[in-house]
Write a structure and sequence with these properties.
The complex is a heterodimer of chains A (376) and B (488). By secondary structure, chain A is of the alpha/beta class. Helices cover 29% and strands 22% of the residues of chain A. In chain A, helix 7 (187-205) crosses helix 8 (218-230). Residues 1-5 and 369-376 of chain A have low confidence and may be disordered. With 488 residues, chain B is an alpha/beta fold. The chains are: A alpha/beta (376), B alpha/beta (488).
Chain lengths: 376, 488
């Protein structure tokens, strides 16, 4: 990996030391070899990857000896995820186990889908360890103020709440309808639908369920805070102490505004996640760091690299801007070198996450005009 | 220079800033704080305070202060973005980020000054002589000794302003004089007029709590439209369609303004060439009031050729050249894309390009582009280009029988009809798809400020409704008289 710097600000957070970085890299290389042995062995690999390997000019089991060797794979195309049978993605080693299917998009045409057995649970159990106890107390009940339907997020938050000993209360929110409302320009309906979601949330919060933790998105958090303010109360006053939030609209300015004017002292931790990767934790977001939001992938299960826009096998220097490239390496899912629809800046390894991070995540500028950001 | 947001009296520096650069050189001109829609939603909860701050003053006092503000804006030095800004600074900065020639920036300043200087006359005309105290108090007795009530529909007017036409600001200048606060989302490239005007108003004594400046991305506009009781937006035909029929929104889109030559005058078309050329090319053709189509039953090819002869030679000149008439398209690729679209339309049957002989129309710059005037000729109203409008001097000259004109012209913001034919004039007066009607050789861009533009701003901000009064008997609490009450 490249290590030179590009227009980097001095770090105000604790950097990882060289030894930790080297150790995590060794673990990643070993994990990569282990995953190749699983995904490309005829007895354990999935029908998709076993068939795909037949057309490769190399043998993934023999020729991939470290993470960087994954560059031998052509870029992963998410179009492959459209349509069935979804069972082609299930490794033979997991045959017969209960499976979930999670979908993304789906406003028009066939949505992309990912089959999941236990990955989402593992991701959120690991993420659970990053949540500070004083703001996300064990045993507390949760509100899931986010998308419902065939979404990984909805089930994951419920699992997170249960894993921490609580119960999760959910609302109905169809993000595909939201996108259609925006595309049709039905802004009054969009507002009404947003209000419908907020009404559901307030009903739950006021029903005596002792909810203290919440997942939501920036836009819904804004709406909830303003609706509660109109009722003469605040997010903190209705009992919320910890908020776990995600979305590419998470900017330093938005975070500062939320902390200063919406949260009334409730703690908020931003996250970056998607159906393919799982969940990236953030290092603490503080005023001294200009409210910079830097995410670190759940390595070695998933790896984020910031790559050059044109040469997607080259990592940009620290502080440099690049496109987010994702590699997923779990026993359930193998995704080599998928170019996300996001871009950002490459961040130095943080003491708790001694590998590269990404900050300033935003829609990839060449695709941004086609991206519709809804209420979630 | 950093233009901060201004939250009804409180400057707010955002962590996110948009850098404005010179359209020719790319040199930084200013940074503009970018806020989000939620800040607007939150601040609007206290919108009533904006109106209250204005109502503490007599309406006449507000008008006088606005007149002072007009002088400060046009002639004085005011502090903008933390630094003193002279009128010359303002003109240079506005030209640098919008691509508008400096001479046109100055012309727009004069328009704004005129409106502010004549605010008392304008309000008197638009309110039909209503005593301004009635708008302050909500009701009163007008000169016919009749009780009338005007109810403010929103304590502030939200405005989503454009980047491409500094001329539109005249529309919101009367708002403060009507006792209504302002929430402005400045255009991304043209924050200059809202910021300078706000600074001048505050320096002239208009309460700072009555004015908000919220620069930011589109979600700021959405928050304004969703949360303001009354708002005004400037946009494309799609935007117009989106808000059509929404009584809380006054939407200003393409004007499709036109000149119609009646059969009784068309043989003397040469007498009206100046009116036609000025209507097409004034203000670099950027306004919704610029003429985009000329209808006549005959002589259309001669008219098109004469206009091409007049406007076709217009050249791109540096923005500080007093002779410059053409504004740049500052969004990279925009001018080229528009020109390619026009070329496609000029290629259609029944269309010819009258300015073709006057050299290339598309001029490419290093960081921007220009379009020199284009005159098309259409042998009927059928070709698509007959209904087109662009942000530069462009018009189609369309052959159409007089009897068919009103059926074919479509929506028209300003219609100049050059005819003395009484029957035709009456049809034009009755035509509901013409907003502003000029009878006689008046350029479409010549506005009478004492008349309403796309609806009366007072009717938009205030609802005229019934309010009856009866005295109360302090002892019994029952009405003593029917007062002004009348059966409806």
């Amino acid at each position: 990996m490249t290590t030179e710097t590009a227009a980097e600000k001095p770090a105000v957070f604790e950097l990882a030391d060289e030894q930790s970085i080297a150790r995590s890299r060794e673990q990643l290389d070993a994990h990569t070899v282990e995953m190749m042995a699983w995904h490309f062995h005829p007895s354990t690999g999935s029908p998709f990857w076993l068939e795909y390997a037949e057309g490769l000019p190399f043998d993934p089991i023999k020729d991939v000896r470290c993470f960087d060797d994954l560059k031998k794979f052509p870029p992963f195309e998410d179009e492959w995820l459209r349509g069935g049978p979804v069972t082609r993605w299930i490794p033979k080693g997991f045959a017969g186990q209960p499976a979930y299917v999670f979908e993304t998009g789906g406003t028009t045409g066939t949505p992309k889908s990912r089959v999941n057995l236990r990955d989402f649970r593992t991701d959120y159990e690991e993420f659970s360890a990053t949540l500070p106890e004083e703001h996300f107390p064990k045993g507390a009940n949760w509100l899931m103020l986010g998308p419902s339907g065939p979404r990984r997020l909805r089930l994951s938050i419920e699992h997170l709440a249960q894993f921490r000993g609580g119960i999760c209360f959910c609302i109905d929110l169809d993000p595909r309808w939201v996108i259609k409302l925006i595309q049709k320009g039905w802004m009054e309906h969009l507002e009404a639908y947003k209000q419908h979601c907020i009404d559901q949330a307030i009903t739950i919060l006021e029903a005596g369920h002792d909810i203290r933790c919440m997942f939501t998105t920036p836009k819904l958090l804004e709406s909830l805070a303003l609706a509660l303010e109109k009722k003469g109360t605040t997010i903190h006053e209705v009992g919320i102490t910890g908020i776990f939030s995600g979305g590419t609209e998470f900017t330093p300015q938005w975070t500062r505004f939320a902390v200063e004017e919406l949260l009334d002292g409730a703690y908020m931790t931003p996250t970056y996640g998607n159906t393919l990767m799982g969940l990236a934790a953030s290092r603490p977001v503080v005023p001294e760091d200009g409210y910079t939001i830097a995410y670190y992938s759940p390595q070695p299960r998933a790896v984020i690299e910031l790559v050059d826009f044109d040469d997607t096998n080259s990592v940009v220097p620290y502080g440099g801007t690049g496109r987010v490239k994702l590699t997923t390496l779990t026993k359930e899912t193998f995704v080599p070198g998928f170019l996300e629809r996001d871009e950002g800046e490459r961040e130095r390894p943080y003491v708790k996450y001694p590998w590269d991070g990404v900050s300033g995540v935003r829609p990839f500028h060449k695709l941004a005009t086609a991206t519709t950001v809804g209420v979630y | 220079m950093h233009l901060t947001a201004f939250r009804f009296g409180k400057p707010y520096e955002s962590l996110e800033r948009n850098q404005l650069v010179h359209f020719l050189t790319g040199e930084p001109v200013a940074e503009v704080s970018q806020v989000g829609g939620a800040i607007v939603g939150r601040d609007l909860r206290k919108a009533a305070q904006a109106r209250q701050a204005l109502l503490k003053f007599d309406p006449e006092e507000i008008v006088e202060r606005l007149q002072t503000a007009g002088n400060l804006y046009a002639l004085g030095t005011v502090e903008v973005g933390g630094v003193p800004q002279t009128p010359d600074d303002f003109v240079r900065q506005q030209s640098a980020t919008t691509g508008l020639p400096e001479s046109l920036c100055r012309a727009n300043m004069k328009k704004n000054l005129f409106v502010l200087s004549n605010m008392d006359r304008m309000l008197d005309a638009l309110s039909r002589g209503l005593p301004p105290e009635i708008l302050w108090k909500g009701y009163g007795t007008e000169h016919r000794d009749v009780v009338v009530s005007y109810q403010a529909q929103s304590p502030v007017l939200g405005l989503v302003l454009p980047s491409n036409s500094p001329g539109v600001h005249t529309l919101w200048l009367p708002v403060v004089a009507l006792g209504v606060g302002l929430l402005l989302k400045p255009g991304g490239q043209e924050p200059w007029t809202p910021y300078r005007m706000a600074a001048a108003m505050i320096e002239a004594g208009i309460p700072a709590e009555a004015i908000g400046l919220y620069p930011g991305p589109t979600d700021v506009g959405s928050a304004i439209m969703a949360n303001c009781g009354r708002s005004m937006i400037f946009g494309s035909a799609k935007t117009v369609e989106q808000y059509r029929g929404n009584p809380a929104v006054q939407v200003h889109g393409p004007g499709f303004s036109k000149i119609l030559l009646g059969d009784d005058c068309v043989d003397h078309w040469e007498d009206y060439l100046d009116v036609m050329a000025e209507s097409i090319a004034a203000n670099s053709g950027r306004g919704c009031i610029n003429c985009s189509a000329i209808y006549a039953s005959r002589h259309t090819r001669e008219i098109a050729d004469a206009l091409a002869e007049r406007l076709g030679p217009h050249e791109v000149k540096p923005p500080d050249d007093p002779e410059a008439t053409l504004a740049a398209f500052t969004i990279p690729g925009a001018a080229k894309a528009i020109w390619e679209q026009i070329e496609g339309l000029l290629d259609k049957p029944g269309v010819s390009h009258a300015t073709a002989a006057h050299g290339p129309r598309f001029v490419e710059g290093e960081r921007c582009g220009w379009l020199r005037p284009v005159i098309a000729h259409c042998s009927s109203p059928d070709p698509e280009i007959a209904r087109a409008e662009y942000m530069f001097p462009f018009a189609s000259v369309i052959e159409c029988p007089q009897a068919a004109m009103l059926d074919r012209i479509g929506p028209t913001l300003v219609g100049t009809a050059i005819t003395a034919d009484e029957a035709f004039r009456q049809s034009l007066i009755n035509a509901t798809h013409i907003d502003r009607l000029n009878l006689g050789p008046l350029p479409t861009i010549k506005l009478d400020w004492l008349q309403p533009h796309e609806g009366n701003i007072i009717d938009f901000l205030y609802r005229s409704r019934a309010l009856q009064l009866a005295d109360i008997n302090a002892a019994s609490g029952s009405p003593l008289t029917a007062g002004a009450a009348a059966a409806g």
